[in-house]
Amino acid sequence: MPKPTSYRRDFLKGRAVQKSLENTTSSQQPTSSAKSPNQSEANSYLLHITRKAMACDFQVFLNAGEDEHATEAAVEALDIVEEVEDILSVYRSHSSASQLNQLGSQRAIPVHPVLLQLLKQAKQLWESTEGAFDVTSASLSKLWGFHQKEHNVPSPENLKQALSHTGSEHLIIHEDGSVEFDRPELQINLGSIGKGYALDRCHHHFVGHNLTNYLIHGGLSSVLAHGNRLNQTNTGKGWQIGLRHPLIPDQYLAHLWLHSHATGTSGDANQFFYHQGKRYGHVLDPRTGQPVENILSATAFCHTAAEADALATAFFVMGPEQTADYCQLHDHGFLIVEQGKQNRATILHMRGLGEDQIELIDPSAKLITYD
């Protein structure tokens, strides 16, 4: 791997991708909030449609007045998100994912084609990241108390037992489309890839309706952008988003421009606890069961939102050096924010972003770039 270069300049620090979109209004229902008195004026407004799904707000942004069928297409896309949730949610007893969790350790069972496709992709990512991404690690989060927010540091014995019930090598996918677990108590949870997959489905829906310019996100941490925001100063650069500072509330780390790309961000700024003076974050290394230390956030830049969603978690676990090697091999980009030595200081590791894709904000951040 090429030796990284380090320097200081205006830059960014980030936990969750936040909207940084001007001239918008919002609504809690999937209805248009844009004005369109004439074409030139309409292009300075955004059509904004939102709906709650997967325990977050899914939002669609389109250039107002650009396509007369945009609102209908956006509502239909959010319908697809709800359909995907009904298949993947482990919190709905009738879902295909829940049925697999209930019966998968007893026998091979047929699963919904959507779940089958996603499980195949998840297992491929588990293999390529050498276990840093693993959809079977939910029992570890439960052990640490992050699911119910009843935090505790598990004993070595309990941690060893939980690890024996995790690992995607025990997720068996048969050629006939059935799936089974070869370990008792194995469970899957698609929360780390499901939102991204839903965004990809929305994207394919928009392509089928000949829409070319849009930004969609799920809960701000998973974003997919296509084409351009019209009538902006930076014409042709895509859509502008913002990355929040992981240590300072209400401050941005950077503005980024996405054009036909997806991002996923993983961070533990809001989910952690202290025990005997030590901080424990909710992002766990599924190979050891231990919380990842020193990393504040990880953002992946990929061509699909499902990959970006999953790899953001993997990159958080892998750290900058391993992530740089991975991205060089797989042609992805990343931005990892690491804890600096001083209070609120950060070190930023970056690959795959051009100078015209980023507006650096924090002058105190140390930046390390990778070719």
Structure description:
With 371 residues, this protein is of the alpha+beta class. The chain has eight helices and 19 strands. It has helices spanning 39-42, 70-88, 96-103, 113-128, 138-144, 156-163, 194-208, 305-330; strands at residues 5-8, 17-19, 46-53, 56-63, 109-110, 171-173, 178-181, 214-218, 222-226, 239-244, 252-258, 261-267, 272-275, 278-281, 295-302, 333-339, 346-351, 358-360, 366-369. Strand 6 and strand 7 form a beta hairpin.
Summarize the structure.
The protein has 371 residues and is an alpha+beta fold. Helices cover 28% and strands 26% of the residues.
Instruction: Bin the strand percentage.
Output: 25-35%
- Biggest sheet, spatial arrangement of strands: 1-19-17-16-15-12-9-8-4-3
Cα-atom radius of gyration: 21 Å
N-to-C span: 8 Å
CATH superfamily of the largest domain: ApbE-like domains
Low-confidence stretches: 1-43
Shape: globular
Mean model confidence by pLDDT: 85
- Sheet with the most strands, sense and barrel status: 10 strands, mixed
Helix content: 25-40%
Number of domains: 2
Furnish the topology, listing elements before pairings.
Blueprint: E1 5-8, E2 17-19, H1 39-42, E3 46-53, E4 56-63, H2 70-88, H3 96-103, E5 109-110, H4 113-128, H5 138-144, H6 156-163, E6 171-173, E7 178-181, H7 194-208, E8 214-218, E9 222-226, E10 239-244, E11 252-258, E12 261-267, E13 272-275, E14 278-281, E15 295-302, H8 305-330, E16 333-339, E17 346-351, E18 358-360, E19 366-369
Parallel strand pairs: 17-19
Antiparallel strand pairs: 1-19, 2-10, 3-4, 4-8, 5-7, 6-7, 8-9, 9-12, 10-11, 11-18, 12-15, 13-14, 15-16, 16-17
Helix pairs in contact: 2-7, 7-8
